[in-house]
Amino acid sequence: MTASEFDSYRPPEPPRRRRGSGKGRRRAAGSGWLRRGAEGAREMPVVPDAEVEPYSSYYGRPVVKAPPWKKEVATYLFLGGVAGGSGLLAFGAQLTDRPVLRRNARLSALTTVGVGSLALVADLGRPERFLNMLRTIKPTSPMSLGSWVLAGFGTSSGIAAAGEVDRLLGERLPLGPIRAVLHGAEPAAGAMMGLLGSPLAGYTAVLLSDTAMPTWNAARGDLPFLFVSSAALAASGLAMITTPVEETGPAQALAVLGVAGDLVAEPVMVSRMDPVAAEPLHRGTPGQLLTWSKRLAIAGGVGTLLGGRNRWVAAASGAALLTSSALTRFGVFQAGINSAKDPRYTIEPQRRRLEARRAAGQTGDSITTAV
Amino acid sequence: MTSEPVQQRPNPTGDAHYDHPHSRRGFFTDTSICIGCKACEVACKEWNRNPADGDYEILGSSYDNTGALGADTWRHVAFIEQDRERIEEARESGRKLVDLGMPQVGPPQERGVADGAASSSATHTPDTPEFRWLMSSDVCKHCTNAGCLDVCPTGALFRTEYGTVVVQEDICNGCGTCVAGCPFGVIERREDGLVSTPAGREMPDTVKKPQNGVAQKCTLCYDRMKDDETPACAKTCPTTSIKYGEREDMLAAAHERVAQLHEQGMTEARLYGANPDDGVGGTGSIFLLLDEPEVYGLPPDPRVPTADLAHTFKRAGVAMAGMALATATAFMVGGRR
Amino acid sequence: MANADCIVIQGSNMAECHPVGFQWVAEAKARGARVIHVDPRFTRTSASADRHVPIRAGSDVVLLGALINHVLQNDLWFKEYVTSYTNAPFLISDDFKDTEDLDGLFSGYDPETGHYDRSSWAYKTDDDAGAEPEHGASASGRAEGESHGSGGPPVAKRPMRDDTLQDPRTVFQILKRHYSRYTPEMVQETCGVSVEDFEYLARSITENSGRDRTTCFAYAVGWTQHTLGAQFIRTASILQLLLGNMGRPGGGIMALRGHASIQGSTDIPTLFNILPGYLPMPTVDMETFQDYLDSIASKQQKGFWANADAYSVSLLKAWWGEASQPENNWAYDYIPRLTGPHGTYQTLEAMMRDEVEGYFILGQNPAVGSANGRMQRMGMSHLKWLVVRDLNMIESATWWKDGPEIASGEMRTEDIETEVFFFPAATHVEKSGTFTQTQRLLQWRHQAVTPPGDCQSELKFFHDLGQRIRAKLADSEDPRDRPLLDLTWDYPLHDDGDPSSEAVLAEINGRFLTGEDAGKPLSTFNQMKPDGSTSGGCWIYTGVYADGINHAADRMPGQEQDQIASKWGWAWPANRRILYNRASADPEGKPWSERKKLIWWDQDAGRWTGPDVPDFPVDRAPGTVPDPDAGGPAALAGDDPFIMQSDGKGWLFAPKGMVDGPLPAHYEAQESPVVNPLYPQQPSPTRELFPRGDNLTAPRYGQAGNEVYPYMFTTYRLTEQHTAGGMSRWLPYLAELQPEMFCEISAELAEERGLEPYGWATLVSPRAVIEAKVLVTDRVVSLDVAGRRIHQIGLPYHWGVGSDAVVTGDSANDLMGITLDPNVHIQESKVGMCDIRPGRRPRGEAATRLVSEYQQRAGLTVETGNERVTDPDLELRKEDPS
Amino acid sequence: MARFSFLEWPVVRQLRTADSTARSSATVSEHTRELTSRNATADRVVQSVCPYCAVGCGQKVYVKDEKVIQIEGDPDSPISRGRLCPKGAASEQLVNAPGRQYEVLYRAPRAKDWQKLDLEQAVEMVADRFLEARRNKWQDADDKGRRLNRTMGIAALGGATLDNEENYLIKKLFTAAGAIQIENQARI
Questions:
Q1: Of C334, C356, C430, which has the smallest distance from its Cβ to D176's Cβ?
Q2: Which residue would you say has higher pLDDT here, C577 or C583?
Q3: Looking at residue A137, which CATH number applies to its domain?
């Protein structure tokens, strides 16, 4: 090309490429299809081992669509876990007569479940229709069952927390005859919190893995263990912050158990996932989040074990644990979203399992047929 | 539906419990005769009043400028340019599929034809062209086991009396779970449903304001179906690449067509969604493809996520019990401290 | 078409431009027919064909000529059909000299005027008196191809013939010799079509022709938009006649046209050179009505054109009613006279010279859709006033404020004196009326709703305008105003004030004016009389309103009819669905085969019968030999199927009618990357030139400066858009499907020029510079032609520069120059030369500078590429014969 | 939200009907139940022909409240058998296009923008200009004195998208006015 005065109109020349076969070509972020539902550009995965057949795709476009969920949903995953764990702690405290822990855990449960629910509603496309969540009871829909759990837990923690607040304010609230009912219902509400606590903490794992998002789906058998562990350590962490050490013995114990569960559950989970589907857990932001979540979990766990009797060490450990749990939820959440955006994570595991079944002589269950 | 094995399989219309169920309806999209005119895309948008989407820019995928199925595009025509090498690969992968000895579907008489075709294919191999341009109109699969429908918490998604899967836009609250639940990436939440033109003009009143914030996808023209009309895309399709009818008939047509193509030596032809034993129990929209599904942006081995739900619930139950147990333990341990 | 055994689609992108018409190809294919697509690009049509044969744009005559040669050399022609139904056995005048003799010219060429004297192309007659004198050959001849649209021009009545076809002066032998050098090797060399592809094509069409089988050709603007356009179609007709595929089911040549009523607008023309029904507009030398009639047809010739007097008088009666009387030659002098071509490009030149004051643009977008867009817009700025009637605010209405010339500073809005009126038009559902589709079928559209706002139909607007004009002139004594004042203009009005389109259709159909049937509609044009007792606005449409019934509105569902579906709409002439269908039976009147029967002679009934309406006198027995003194339909012999031709035969050789040669010969396009390998004469010697500074031409291959514009480009349409976009770029649903202007190039060219896939490219032709997104694709192949690598660039032409449409972009037509086919004055917009470079085009003045920088580099002048005769030896040879 | 009725609450419906998992009949809303095809609500259906290319595909135009609510292929047409291409399928949008013009606009000489103009006045202005241009560029005879009877001051372009009846009136009026420069897309 001759240089001319019009060269200034040209865009900088990227390296030359022969004809675009489509493979790997994609548009810049922010335009066209990518803008719909996907967030910005993401790193190009390097094709790993040679054993995997080179996959083809339609212009590198996603096969499955990531849900339109934003940070609010990840926040709810975290807060729902904290609420569930707090419900269990409050019930335990209720049964073992630890009034401060009971009160604080109940109030924590109500706060987190409340804020979490608001976050969920805010993420709806039509927030004014949030009540439709209770339109049906669908056993096939973890979101439906979860909504009922959430509603039950929210109601019971509301009653229980209201009793605590009333006591806190010296029964000065103008409740009249309701007061007797409220206090009469408190133990049952507390029991309900205990009953629904672990479902609330764990159902979100089922919700995520009951999707076509490759990473979440591949983690389906083990993700609940990670989530309940994470919830346990987070709720304990919060209790260690809110409650004097005198009453947090059980919380500290639960924190340590939670950390142990968390540290075991994740590697086990990853080891049982398709290696390609697990990749997003280790790459980019989710990878960093999950790495730090482990570090903080260890730190919090060790802090609890070694310095749990000190109010400040306990609180710091609690904060570490809370943060760790948040990072776990955000990491897992983002990894799943990311896994939808690159067709490789959908296609390669599917091809592999299809080939494996065929190799095993199981040929009758393919969606592609020759006749 | 009298034979034994069929009864064990889900029957979308029968299982839907309507007072007056109809036979299951579906599409058969024969991509081998698609001319890529996109009439289906336009007719669909025009009927359903869906907004145009995108930024009016060339997307960089041959003549495809709508990109993919989504909240606003319920029919999407894919364009794939292939050279000789790729055509040969497709032919070979198809031949392998034939050789696998696929499952018994359909009555045995039909199988006879197909078998004959498969065995004679070797003798009839046609010239491989230097180049081909595949066009294929994609659409919601209306799965027998539909992920979107299963995971919907509100009941906005439902199985119609025609065995199809439809969103009720007056119910949906836009939770987005169905988007993640679809193994084909079909359904999407409509975020910005306004047609914008350079002059910023408003749409005339005949164009209804599109439903925003709710999940949207092909309804197989449920409203038209109620009045015995053909879905807009199938009605307009100039070459009958998109066929519509009772799903049983569509299935039969698909079997017949693939056998015919195999007889002509086109072993690259294959069906997608015709197998009731696949991961979604077969699809209401059956396709005839000329290459591997992923070439068209379709998953090679989709599986409805809820197929594993019982197992996941079991594992989750263990985990939840574990958590409760751990808490109990903690109180015992911590109490002694 | 669904009945064809082989379909060759050439010069048309049928699947893209006519998807619904393509269903019949798809159906034929499903029945086992072979479909071959010959086109420069691999399109959506190619994708659905059995084979795509890539060809260099503009070289179609070579390929078709080679097929003719193949058929003749290998004795594959349909002997009985050719001998009986074509002019193959006829002898041609001894004065005729072929291109083989004159290095690419036919006898009679005048290098001064660029016209042929066609007297030597006539049939040889008994008395050897030569042809009849020609009428206005030089004056009106330029539009002759069109003015004799469906009818043939008159020829000598009794040509000599040699049924053995051995005489070297027979059409057959002349044809054979003419195409003898059109070989497969020549095809490879010239068209870039491989010998293997050629043989496949030749085999396919010859194996699928004959008694039992038929081959069909389909073309569109890919053929017509060339300097050789009409000859492309002629070449295919010759081939189809030789193979016996004309007038038979699944045969023929199908024209695929782009506009709803493009056929109708030639039948009832908004064209300068014809009147309704292909009657010519009179030229200045046809001073008397008799002169005029003589120019159309002789009373003695065969076929239906012999009654042109009846058709003409009926037209004049329809227009001027009582004012049309024998004393004033039926008001013949009310019709203005032509002195030459007055087509849109000549009008454009006149605009530039400030000779045109007012311009109506009716549902068309010349600022985008016409060649040399810059010249179109500059031309409009010379007008005093401009009326644009359209649905949307098209670029032709807004060039004065947002056109490319405003951006480049060549024009300033505040300097433009032109008044512009924009009238909103009514859509097709807001008015009733007929469209004539591509197979001559008239279909009535019922009005669904009334037009909104100020929107009006053309019918209403022009009726209203006419009334106002007539009212303003009511008191005029000036004779020049008589035609307007005497005009029949009293159409009944509907309640909403719109004139009744049905009443207009009834006038077009015609009626009896006298006698007992006075006032009743005519049933057939045979009822028309030259004595003023009938009227009719368009004779070929007579019958559409027979018995007072609007047959265009006939709507018997297709499912309830046979394949001919004669009760759906109404086809001209006389509701015949397949023209010349007498040829579907053998000379004895029996179907050529059971498989391909359409009409046949029923001996017992004494008439032609079959599912279609016979396009032949229905009771004329196959063996009839007409009275030698008869004329008109009565002179047709029982084996003269081509009833509109003056000798009843299919023309392999056109003794009249074509102004650029009796046989198609290959010439290179005005802008071409190669030397014509067949003749020293490069481009068509009779092409219509517009040598102007704003319409420059790239140098021919071999001339200096040729390398400045090294690449061929060709323009085309896409399924998702409609011509200049007035009906598609304003529709979001269509706009989003093809949102941006692009060019299609091969990977090789992309490599050569460093063009990035889906990036921007700038294209520069001798006329303009435009920008486009780049689609690098294997669908465009670079061809080896004349020992060189030829790169072709594909350009869709739907976009225009403006601000109102949903999508806008540069217009490919800006690159185009104006050079016309001499027969029909259609511009050459399929081939041109340009350069391509990466990046967006310069803006403002810099754009104009870039174009002139290229022009200077190539050393372009007004003369470049505009030489009529390119053979340096021509002058010498002119001396030779004397 | 509509009035809440306990028995119609889908949770109750799923418990009292066979659709226990709430995936079909139990969850159908009132709106869904009453859904019908837009076409079924039309006041009338009119047969028409596609305005785009020359294939001449049949169309059915559905009209409600004097507005076009749908245009689709006419299955009775032996030409198109009910099918339409993308352009034909977009016909309804052509009629109800967001950018369609409904007003007469006028641009005065040297003006920078349009102004609105009354329809009657506009046609009147065009009629005046028509006659003036006709007069200004009138030719009675050529230089040899032969009759021409024409004006070169007025030209027209267009017709291939118009009806035969419209083209007929245009040709008739122009010819009577002596205006010969008239062309359409058939040559472009």
A1: C334
A2: C583
A3: 1.20.1630.10
- All residues of chain B having their beta carbon less than 8 Å from the beta carbon of residue C806 are 56, 197-198
Residue pointed to by tokens 């030398």: C285
Residue C592 neighbours by CB under 8 Å, 6+ apart: C81, C211, C212, C244, C248, C584, C585, C586
A157 found inside a domain = yes
Q: How large is the average pLDDT for residues B143-148?
A: 96
Which ranges of D28-103 would DSSP assign to H, the alpha helix? 30-33, 86-89, 91-95
Question: A363 lies in a domain?
Answer: no
For residue A160, how many other CB atoms are within 10 A of its CB?
A: 31
C345 secondary structure, DSSP code: H
- Judged by CB atoms closer than 8 Å, whether chains meet at A134 and D10 is answered as no
Residues of C in contact with B52 (CB under 8 A): 732-733, 735-736
Query: Strands, E, within D29-146: which ranges?
Result: 44-49, 58-64, 67-73, 105-107, 115-116, 138-141
Closest CA to A70 of B185, B179, B157, B169: B179
Measured in degrees and rounded to the nearest 5, phi and psi for residue D177 equal -80, -5
Residue A19 lies in a domain: no
Q: What is the mean pLDDT of residues C678-703?
A: 91
Backbone angles phi, psi at C392, to 5 degrees: -120, 165
Contact status, residue C305 vs residue C151, Cβ threshold 8 Å: yes
Q: What is the mean pLDDT of residues C293-302?
A: 86
Q: Say if A68 is an interface residue toward chain B (CB within 8 Å).
A: yes
Alpha carbon distance A316, A304 (integer Å): 9
DSSP conformational letter for A75: H
Token pair 């909103």 is found at C424
Give pTM, 2 decimals: 0.91
Tally of domains in chain A: 1
Interface touch C773/B38, C-beta < 8 Å: no
**B7 pLDDT exceeds 60?**
no
Confidence at residue B100, expressed as pLDDT on a 0 to 100 scale: 80
Mean pLDDT computed over every residue of chain A: 87
Q: Give the confidence band of A48 by pLDDT, cuts at 50, 70, 90.
A: very low
Give all domains of chain D, ordered by start, each with its CATH number: 1-35 (no CATH), 38-95 (2.20.25.90), 137-187 (no CATH)
Instruction: Name the residue range of residue A90's domain.
Output: 71-351
For A68-79, b/e burial (b = at least 16 CB within 10 A) is bbeebbbbbbbb
User: Nearest CA to C80 among C574, C641, C612?
Assistant: C641
Residue of B58, B73, B134, B256 for testing the chain C interface, max C β-carbons within 10 Å:
B58
Taking the C-alpha atoms of residue A145 and residue A136, their distance in angstroms, rounded to an integer, is: 9
pLDDT at C492: 96
Element (H, E) at C240: helix C229-242
Inter-axis angle of helices C184-191 and C60-73, nearest 10:
170
Helix (H) or strand (E) holding B26: strand B25-30
For A114-132, what is each residue's pLDDT tens digit?
999 999 999 999 999 999 9
Q: Return the pLDDT at C254.
A: 84
Q: What is the pLDDT of residue A43?
A: 36
For residue A95, what pLDDT is reported? 95
Q: Is A165 part of any domain? A: yes
Q: Please report the number of interchain residue pairs, chain A to chain C, with beta-carbon separation below 8 angstroms.
A: 47
Q: Which of D93, D138, D158 is closest, CB to CB, to C362? A: D158
C-alpha C314: how far from chain center:
27
Burial-class residue B307 by CB neighbours within 10 Å (0-12, 13-18, 19+): middle
**Domains of chain C: residue spans and CATH:** 6-255 (3.40.228.10), 259-337+441-452+485-578 (no CATH), 344-425+453-480 (3.40.50.740), 688-858 (2.40.40.20)
Which regions of D4-146 does DSSP assign to beta strands (E)?
44-49, 58-64, 67-73, 105-107, 115-116, 138-141
Cβ-based contacts of B63 with chain C (< 8 Å): 44, 718, 738
